[in-house]
Amino acid sequence: MTVIALASDHAGVDLKSFLADELKARGLDVLDLGTNGPASVDYPDYGYALAAAVKDGRAERGVAICGSGIGISIALNRDPAIRAALCHNGLLARLSRQHNDANVLVLGARMIGLEVARDCLAAFLDTPYEGGRHAGRVSKLSCPPPAGGPAGSSC
């Protein structure tokens, strides 16, 4: 069964719970990496935990949430195995899958409402990666350039 990892800071707890229910309604397994309450926490900790879950195969994809989505997105994208896309609408979520093979959807809980989040999640889950002309570019995202060289040349 497909496992989707969820992680949020304190600002994203309610949206995370809503999206967990959406995922379960689709018959997907949810790996909830926290946090689960309103006490202030540090979003990088949850971003790193989600990145590890996707990287080590405990989850096929992930959804990360913080207040704006920016901080947790930065934390996630520090791992070369992660392609986290901060999305504000379904079109961006669809394009992040089609063109960038995003493996983590990032949402800003204070930026979007529940219906937009639901649309983003549906597009993220239902859209396949196109590959083709995008494949070379996407491979460069996981293979940083050596000093002074072109991306992808050291992999």
Q: Could you characterize what this model shows?
A:
The protein is of the alpha/beta class and 155 residues long. The protein has one domain: 3-Layer(aba) Sandwich (Ribose 5-phosphate Isomerase B, Chain: A), CATH 3.40.1400.10. Helices cover 41% and strands 15% of the residues. The chain has 6 helices and 5 strands. The chain has helices at residues 13-25, 43-55, 70-76, 90-100, 114-126, 135-141, and strands at 3-8, 29-32, 61-66, 84-86, 104-108. The chain has a 5-stranded parallel beta sheet, sandwiched between helices. The protein is globular and about 45 Å long. The mean pLDDT is 94.
Give the helices and strands, then pairings.
Elements: E1 3-8, H1 13-25, E2 29-32, H2 43-55, E3 61-66, H3 70-76, E4 84-86, H4 90-100, E5 104-108, H5 114-126, H6 135-141
Keywords for this entry:
155 residues, alpha/beta, Ribose 5-phosphate Isomerase B, Chain: A, 5-stranded parallel beta sheet
**What's the CATH topology label?**
Ribose 5-phosphate Isomerase B, Chain: A
Say how many strands there are.
5
Largest sheet: 5 strands, parallel
Strand proportion: 15-25%
Cα-based radius of gyration, to the nearest Å: 15 Å
CATH class: Alpha Beta
Unreliable residue stretches: none
Q: What is the H/E order?
A: EHEHEHEHEHH
Distance between the termini: 31 Å
Shape call: globular
- CATH architecture call: 3-Layer(aba) Sandwich
Number of domains: 1
The CATH superfamily turns out to be Sugar-phosphate isomerase, RpiB/LacA/LacB
Helix content: 40-55%
Q: What class, by secondary structure content?
A: alpha/beta
Strands of the largest sheet, in order across it?
2-1-3-5-4
Q: Helical element count?
A: 6
